[in-house]
Give the backbone structure.
Amino acid sequence: MNKDLILKNSYDFKSVLDNGKSYRNREYIIYIANNNLNKYRIGISVGKKIGNAIHRNYYKRIIRNFCHNSKSHYQNGKDYIIIFKKEGLNLDFHGLESSFNSLLNKIEKEK
């Protein structure tokens, strides 16, 4: 993913979490908020309940791959925060991918 498209600043994260609309399923929560820029930005969060740093980074890489493969679902001028939940540990790669894509499709239908 391009560095311009990554949301890392804690102020930006807090702004999206406070002002954004949330969509959720069993494995993910996605917050969406306007950013007044001509591009979309994505932030990924995996909590400490998931495991040690190796496991958290593994799931971040997987989610980053899902985001890269589904670029068409994102709109310019929006910030997205994707939170991975502990319930996702029970699924394999394809299960996580189908859950992520179904949540993105749900978001797209609501708009």
About this structure: The first strand starts at residue 21 and ends at 24. Residues 11 and 96 are 29 Å apart (CA to CA). The two ends are 25 Å apart (CA to CA).
